[in-house]
Fold each of these.
Amino acid sequence: MFIDEIKVHARAGHGGKGCVAFLREAYRPKGGPSGGNGGLGGDVILEADHDLNNLIAQFFKPKLLAENGDDGMGKGMDGHAGADLLVKVPCGTLVWRLAPSPGAIVEPAPNSDQDLEAPKPRLPSGRILQRGDVKALEIDLEGEEGSPESLPEAAKGDLVADLTEHGQRFVLCRGGRGGLGNRNFATATRQAPRFAQPGEPGDEGDFIFELRLMADVGLVGYPNAGKSTLLTAISKARPKIAPYPFTTLHPQIGIVEYPDWSRLVVCDVPGLIEGAHLNVGLGHAFLRHIKRCKILVLLLDMAGTDGRTPWDDYRQLRQELEYYDATMLEKTILVAANKMDEEASAGNLKKFKRRVPKTPVLEIAAAFDVGLDAFLNKIRLATEAAGR
């Protein structure tokens, strides 16, 4: 099962309560206040991991709950801090914070006249932690970057994190601070305080995790154009192949290896249809996976097996990309003419070049490994030129 979008509920641990206690020992029957502080609640932390390829773990565990801090105890003993909850997600995961639904009751955090001392230094929620926690980079939520670009994304709320590098961390919810025990409130005029602070609640909220695959090359085309066959021919990926449309139901990843040990990551996106930019045929679920690709390959069925013409397919695919996100056309786009082993392919290719002039075409027959060497060299050069 491939899961690339999931809604989760996250809650950091609550801080422990401060203790009201007085020291009672031999020879000290009326000792002073000795209530300890409550422990700090645990954080909910996300970490990008390149060994994961989908959000299946969150599908089976949509509630992310960190441990609460322990309450303070007598004799000045502080409560233990709650353990942080570390959640690993695949590289390329975006995190959207959902706004509270209208009419929802949100309880404010308890106010305190005292400045709570945290038992250990914490980074505030909304910051990305680099490997080793050497430095923190706060995400700017007010600038243009990171703001939703389309209506479906705007409905998801605010973008709070984009985890793209292995080991990158993000504090999703910060744990509440523990309350101070009564020993912290003893003064010369108030030597026996009989009150303590309650612990602060941890951050809590609903989020959407959205995966956008990290790939160098994205294969785009109509259903039954031969994308899965091409991916099988150039890599060790083995997607399902059958002679009917929509055989591929979710994106497939393949690794292309070259003789000099260099590699390219190729993403096979399920077939697009007319109106994909309007989410027809789950268009948004497929199109978002190629937004991070360095180059795109438009794979055309040059034989017109399904009764469509290759030049119409080419124009329609570019139109769908433009309508979904105009910046997609700024990428390097290669055109590959597949099924050149068919009789009708040669004639259709001549018509295609007349109707779509000044567009280089790579002629291949993926099922018979024809033209694949030139195809692999071309995508390698194009990827390097795009800044690999």
Amino acid sequence: MNIIDQIQTNYLRPNRTIETLLLWDEIDSNVAKVIYIYNYEGYHYRIFENVIELSNFLNNANFKLLSELSTDSEVYKYLSELNLNALI
């Protein structure tokens, strides 16, 4: 299971945010990863592995998502169970 720490929230508009999160492994604290979540109106979440993919998404270029989810609980479950070693 991962520990989730919120680093920053940027408001693009009142109903659109970008959250920067630090995930780290509960067992091995040397394994950590920063990820980015684009939150559209609190019901549509896109999770990005790095700021380049997020920037590509915002600029309508080709991008790669880690996941696309629709509720807070789905996001929390996904982030808690994400294999950080596969991303490093």
Amino acid sequence: MKEDFEDIFHDEEYSELVNRYEEMLKNNTKYFFDVIEFESIIDYYIDSNKANNALNAVKFASQQHPYSLNIQLKKAQVLVDKGHAPQALQVIEQIERIESSNSDVYLLKGSTLNIMGRYSEAERAFDTAIIYSYDDKVDIIYTIAQSFEQIGRYKTALKYLHQAYKMDNKNIMLLYDIGYCYEKLGQINKSIEFYKQYLDKEPFSENGWYNLGILYNKWDKYTNAIEAYEFALAINPEFSVAYFNLANAYSNNEDYHNAILNYKEYLKFDGKSVEILTFIGDCYESLKEFDIALKYYDEALSEDNYFADAFFGKANVMFRLEKYELALPFIEKAVVIDDINAEYYYMLGNISNELNNDQKALNAFKKANDLDPEELDFIFSLSETYVNVNKVDSAIELLTESLKDNSGNALIYFRLAGCYFLVKNEKKALEAFEKGLKINPKAYLEIIVFYPEAVESNSVNKLLNTYCFDK
């Protein structure tokens, strides 16, 4: 209660000070404010994101206190806030020449240099700030780390966070930030380690459990992710986004019933979301409850008739029911709405294949491959369609190109071997087939995708005897 009273008293005093300053401006008179009062007035405008007012206050303060380094430091801070980092740096360096052992000067210098992209110089300034800091050293190091976090330099931030944690291993916020930085660097294992340390000391942190769930999800450890999200929701049952992520984790874990339950729970907070309705439709589709899936896709489209994923969902259901003519208009609508989604074109290609429209299938698979040239399903389908339309050389070129990034994939070699057999190049066919056998001899039947006659070839059988049947 005493602290609350002091805060109220301070806020009232603060407000009275700003009112007196603004009254001076309004009446075009001059009141005297000491340096500490001007600092408070300038801080008020900085905290209120009123940089122009803050700069104006700096000018008045400089007139009354022309030799105050504190006012000049505030001026530099305001210039930084207004996006004038080079001018701010000039002011800071003038102060530095006079007061060379003030940690606040070097902290602001480091932040300004960071904004200017001069990161090595920023580190040197920050390191000097640490040298000249005393009682609040850990807080200063933490502030420095956050400065680097804000500009995405997480590796540098970690250096300072670890330094601070060595000094104060009871500061759990340091653990939280360390976990966050490792996550941003893609070092999921280390990130999990530090979030778990944080949660050991702060077990009722809903955000800590939520972030841990995200990490486990990224690591494809869906059971662990589910457990983490459920802890977050046990702490805060109204943590709406946790229901969404929990549902996703259940879906990824192929527990579609629980996924549906949690998506519906999320809808209680979010209202009718076309995205969530479509996700529920996906889950029912995975459960082969196609009628209910279509109901949710239609409900999504009643909310937004241009939601491409719902049209894609309906096309997918019709494809699985082998109703290809009904599937076609749905996938064509999806492609019109979102013409940069490779999965849509891939589905269009598959539907066109089933409708024996080779040219349409070829165009669709080419588009899918153009949008995502690393996806092997697209490469295989496109190569098959090239063969169907008697463009075997194009299939060979595509498969050969894909080997640059997939040199350890036996399926590509076996399919390539089949293509070479089709163009009567037995030497290259056998070379490709043998490379595939060396990688994964059990997948040798993949060659018959393009060349069923391979099973009758003496040369092929000789290689099979060498790599498969003699072992």
